[in-house]
Amino acid sequence: MTMTAAQIAAALADIVGSDGVVSDPGKMGAWLNEPRKRFHQNAAAVVMPASVAAVQAVMRWANENRVGIIPQGGNTGLVGAQVPLSGQEVILSLQKLDNIRSIDTAAGVMTAEAGVILENAHKAAEAKGAMFPLWLASQGSARIGGVLSSNAGGVNVLAYGNARELTMGVEAVLADGRLYQGLNALKKDNTGYDLKDLLVGAEGTLGIITAASLKLYPLPEDYETAIVNVASPEAALDLFQLMRQRAGSRLNAFELIPWIGLDIQLRHGMLDADPTASASPWYALIELTRMAGTEPGALQSALEAAFEEALISDAVVAESLSDRTRMWAFREQMSECQSREGASIKHDVSVPIAAVPALIAEGSAAAEKLSPGIRPVPFGHMGDGNIHFNFSMPVGADPKAFMAQYDEAMHAVIYEVVLRHGGSVSAEHGIGQLKVGLLKQVKDPVALEMMGAIKTALDPKGILNPGKMLG
Amino acid sequence: MTMTAAQIAAALADIVGSDGVVSDPGKMGAWLNEPRKRFHQNAAAVVMPASVAAVQAVMRWANENRVGIIPQGGNTGLVGAQVPLSGQEVILSLQKLDNIRSIDTAAGVMTAEAGVILENAHKAAEAKGAMFPLWLASQGSARIGGVLSSNAGGVNVLAYGNARELTMGVEAVLADGRLYQGLNALKKDNTGYDLKDLLVGAEGTLGIITAASLKLYPLPEDYETAIVNVASPEAALDLFQLMRQRAGSRLNAFELIPWIGLDIQLRHGMLDADPTASASPWYALIELTRMAGTEPGALQSALEAAFEEALISDAVVAESLSDRTRMWAFREQMSECQSREGASIKHDVSVPIAAVPALIAEGSAAAEKLSPGIRPVPFGHMGDGNIHFNFSMPVGADPKAFMAQYDEAMHAVIYEVVLRHGGSVSAEHGIGQLKVGLLKQVKDPVALEMMGAIKTALDPKGILNPGKMLG
Fold it and tell me: Which residues span the membrane (chains A, B) (predicted)?
């Protein structure tokens, strides 16, 4: 009774019109080719409903016919949640649902549909003098629905939280086409279970988010940004505590970067000038917000205190927008710059903040033992305990041979250290199809049972993003 | 096959020992008598397990024998979630699970068991130079498990969020005795569904929280506190926006109080001095945090800007700890002071912040129409859109006759206004048994269906806090 791809495409065209369906596999590249080119399965079809009612109609049909549906936003996810697994699924793109339904700065809320591109949400908020404070490298193509379904993070989680904490409510279509109407603009609402947070971060396995009410914040008057030299991750941790004591929630970002990141970027001409004060084994990029009517200088004075306590040895504070832009480019190019040095093995992990130095020390030592000459490039959101613990191949190694020999083995080594420190094997990017097996190994078994029970309760036929997250 | 109370008590004594069971109804007052004396049902027994394993054993027994279990913390809830409904239930008090398992200020986390009294959690954090920023009027008796199960709020939600946002992870015993081990100290963890937030705020209907990892914050150096005169809720809203623009997340509290609250407290001798600058129809209590190494004066300078924009007409800034204490006493006595003026009808509601002035105007007018001479006393967390919209009876009215005639009718009138503005009929206190019927009327029906499906999936025999929240 399985439908053919042609039958599926015809049925979908009946629901949304033929201009809302792509049935030729040769034309599906935009929806199939994900950023890291790890997953290579076809889809039965791509459907692009142009209204919430059309999403509901597609789901009613899919549920009746037991057709697997993969919700997709901007196709920027890194774990394969948004692309096919079996090849029999339909990709349901939310790209045509791209209206910003309302912005109310007095209430501090923007209601955006799932297909709104993150950068467009930023611009719409700024045009009204407000800010939606979630910044990602992929913000020019990532869409709100995917950002929420993956509970995206980014560089300002420290001050504003991740996507979950920036969402007040969601509207979602369930597996059988029912519409959950959970949009609201309330800071407090204790009327029942927290369905919003269940749908956020569920990778489309429990429902399809069609719109969300997002928190807006006042635009800061300005930022104070610096790159400081720290001797070690331990010193960076002490510096982080000092900054939190003095700046509280004005501390907008605290990013750790190793010397090798600067070296690579300068050697490959990726920076127009050195954004640091001087050579150092480690750098921290620190940023404070400055609100209207307050004097600048808080960062400078905190750094002076840090000098006195010998936590930092040198520093440069941005004196212009171009200084700040260069500092952030240095940070944001950290992932990309590794590709200039051949193959690299990547881990998106978190540990309790206090365990970051041990994670880096023990992980680097274990990696060197496994693969002598390997170059650790741990960097990222120290203030969240979230380190992108990456490794570049030894100088002169063969990329393919390196990956074949060490990719899987290195994951095992690093995850062992992470788990020993009570950490997470997916801090930001989620589970998707990439980490389904890993999740089963490391997650509390009762948590997995609870997840399975909830999945079955809300999607009894298992048609929503089948095989993702839960396997 | 229903067990008698004596059989239940005997079985429980076999599990936890006879000193962990109260079977004499005459000795159950501490667990049955809740703050507002609205609910008057007996319990089959009270059981006080002294370990997580004992909680598991009780739940295995209860699930096998289909005995309803009501988890209870400090018995301070206001909607009857923590007391019996049928009289056949067993109250499972977490009071003996009162260890603080660990405090790690570098990681910013405290792991506290469910029976820890909130005030003891405050003291333990402060002894380590940190802060757990959740303050309630009932903090001397409220326990962490209940605080989380009701997703409690309080006066500093504006800066730090409610209980949900202050919780990193929970440990919980499920209906059949399985243990969900979700404690962690991670700021970011995208490995599966958000089970923590499902258990927080579920009023013990999905699992029994036995411990939680709670976020700690640096202690501010000091606070800047003021009471300012505002002409109207509209002016208070404009002032709130100005304060957010200038103070960002340093804005710790923004509480609205009507003149009648001052009048009542002064007439009844509840304040040793007038905490305000001068007479005004409305007051706002505003507080900013000041972090270490920063200069005082931010509140003063913001208030000068507010004067220039004619948003406030007078103000007094606290110059001493006793000034600050008196200002907060004025705010915290708002609920209690109403009892000095006879009967009152109370509503714990929220609306989008921008709708607070309309809520107060329309709700007050509708109340006056229903009950001429009634005295509106709307006060509370303006910055969260959360107003305790209370009404004192007309001067000289008979309390019993007033309540009999107007209590239910007034609820209908106020909830109509709240819902018309997209608000919540239970902003802070939850559903329990008090608002089960109301929830069915006002909640999105698909949300209720999802809640029911999740409840059945996790507690198929319906033994966890039966009849609460979902009915």
Answer: none
Closest A-chain CA to B179 = A446
CATH number at residue B192: 3.30.465.10
Q: Do A188 and B106 touch (CB under 8 A)?
A: no
Q: Whole domain around residue A406: which residue ranges?
A: 342-420
Residue-by-residue DSSP string for A298-347:
HHHHHHHHHHHTTS-SEEEE--SHHHHHHHHHHHHTHHHHGGGGS-EE--
Of residues B106, B220, B431, nearest to A237 (C-beta) = B106
In Å, how far is B304's CA from the nearest CA of chain A?
A: 11
Q: What is the pLDDT of residues B110-162, one digit of tens each?
A: 999 999 999 999 999 999 999 999 999 899 999 999 999 999 998 889 999 99
Measured between beta carbons, the chain A residues lying within 8 angstroms of B200 are 194
Number of domains in chain A: 4
In the listed set B93, B125, B151, which residue is the last one of a domain according to the structure?
Answer: B93
Query: Given a cut of 60, is residue A128 above it in pLDDT?
Result: yes
Nearest by CB to residue A248, choosing from B250, B448, B457, is B250
Which pLDDT belongs to residue B11?
Answer: 98
Do B49 and B131 belong to one domain? no
**In a domain? residue A456:** no
Q: Look at residue A137 in the predicted model and tell me its pLDDT.
A: 87
B27 contact partners, CB below 8 Å, separation of at least 6: none
Q: Are residues B326 and B347 in the same domain?
A: no
Element (H, E) at B46: strand B45-47
Closest residue to B446, CB basis, from A179, A423, A457: A179
For residue B286, the 8-state DSSP code is E
Same structural domain, B347 and B327: no
Check CB contact under 8 Å for B249 and A159.
yes
What pLDDT, on the 0 to 100 scale, is given for residue B182? Answer: 97
CATH number at residue B361: 3.30.70.2740
Mean pLDDT, rounded, of chain A:
96
> Are B32 and B54 in the same domain?
yes
Q: What is the largest CA-CA distance in chain B?
A: 75
- For residues A389-414, give the mean pLDDT: 97
Residue A318 shares a structural domain with residue A284:
yes
SS3 content of chain B, % helix, strand, coil (to 5): 40, 20, 40
What pLDDT, in 10s, does the model give residues A28-47?
999 999 998 999 999 999 99
Q: Which of B291, B294, B457 sits opposite A453 (nearest CB)?
A: B457
Which one of A78, A151, A155, A193 makes the best mutation probe of the B interface by having the most chain B beta carbons within 10 Å? A193
> Does one domain contain both B202 and B297?
no
Q: Which of B202, B237, B352 sits opposite A186 (nearest CB)?
A: B352
Q: How many CB pairs under 8 A join A and B?
A: 288
Element (H, E) at B53: helix B52-65
The question of ipTM being above 0.90 is answered as: yes
Q: How far is B56 from chain A (nearest CA, A)?
A: 13
B218/A244 CB distance under 8 A: yes
In the predicted structure, residue B1 carries a pLDDT above the cut 60: no
Q: What's the whole-number mean pLDDT along residues A69-96?
A: 97
Residues A202 and A175 in one domain: yes
Residue B55 falls inside a structural domain: yes
- How far apart (Å, rounded) are the C-alpha atoms in residues A230 and A105? 40
Neighboring chain B residues of A247 at a CB cutoff of 8 Å: 291
Question: Given the DSSP bridges, would you call strands A69-72 and A90-93 parallel, antiparallel or unpaired?
Answer: parallel
A-chain residues near B431 (CB < 8 A): 190-192
> Is the Cβ–Cβ distance between A292 and A298 less than 8 Å?
no
Q: Which of A303, A335, A367 finishes a domain?
A: A335
In a domain, A445, yes or no: no
Contact A246 B292 (CB under 8 A): yes
User: What are the tokens at A233?
Assistant: 């991750």
Nearest residue in chain B measured CA to CA from A153: B188
Q: How far is A307 from chain B (nearest CA, A)?
A: 14
- Most A CBs within 10 Å: which of B52, B157, B190, as the mutation test of the A interface? B190
Which pLDDT does position A274 carry in this prediction?
Answer: 97
Kindly state whether residues A132 and A202 are assigned to the same domain.
yes
